[in-house]
Amino acid sequence: MSAEAIFAKSRPYLSEVEERLHEAVSAYPGLVELVGAEAVDAGGKRMRPLLILLVSDDRERALRSSVAIELVH
Question: CA-CA distance, 17 to 51, in Å (whole number)?
């Protein structure tokens, strides 16, 4: 399977990761929300969440882990 095909198939998952990232940073109004939103909105390929999805058999745990990894990064 090509990288493009993997990204296409995982688009709904990555969209949910983005949504949860925004929810996470907006839970802390003020400076954390401002800086966090800027970092989240900078985007990127989101390779870490994709790798977590590919090795996980539990989608919900993968989502939570993906958000945590992206926030720490």
Answer: 13
pTM for the full model? 0.82
* Mean pLDDT value across residues 1-14: 89
Amino acid at 45: K
According to the 3-state scheme, what is the secondary structure of 10-54? HHHHHHHHHHHHHHHHHCCCCHHHHHHHHHHHCCCCCHHHHHHHH
The first and second tokens of residue 10, run together, are 């995982």
The token pair that represents 30 in the structure block: 């003020």
Directed axis angle between helix 59-72 and helix 3-26, to 10°?
A: 70
Domain spans of the chain, in order of start? 3-72
